[in-house]
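Bug #2210: token dump truncated for Transcriptional regulator SlyA?
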Amino acid sequence: MAAPRRLPVDPIAEAKRQWIAHGWENAAAGMTAVTSIIRAQQLLFARIDTALRPFGLSFARYEMLRLLGFTREGRMPMASAIARLQVHPTSVTNTVDRLARDGLVSREPHPADGRAAMLVLTDTGRELVERATTALNTEVFEDPGLTDADTTELVRIIARFRKDAGDFTEPRPQPDPL
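Reproduced locally. Full output below:
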């Protein structure tokens, strides 16, 4: 795939200029921040998709496999996966259906709740997620395109934003500061 053509002007900076010109000065900085974050997400997802494509994984499928891979026994209740991934239950169900179809996870009855299901990482799923993680680490996470200092500051700012928005509370005990 050819590299995208670089634009001669930053469209977000131009949008900010237009916001100000149209009398929306009070919203211009916020619009710029929001659209900048969305564009950065698009750029990062493109890199992630490129890294995961050889493994036949979307980021959602990778996240589910990685989540299960982090557990002691490669299993967790479906409800716990939904809560940790912070996505709609239907999205998790669809992701699990595809992973099960491909033999990467299986569903088992919950040992204590007959209405619930346990998600179980298969040996094939474990091997695939380890290889995919190596690729993501090498191709995306080790060099996200920011300096170490900028990465640390960005994570701090976004964590504060997420916390203030009610995304999480301070865990006890607290992890080492970022």
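Output looks complete on our side. The chain has a mean pLDDT of 93. Marking as cannot-reproduce; reopen if the truncation happens again.
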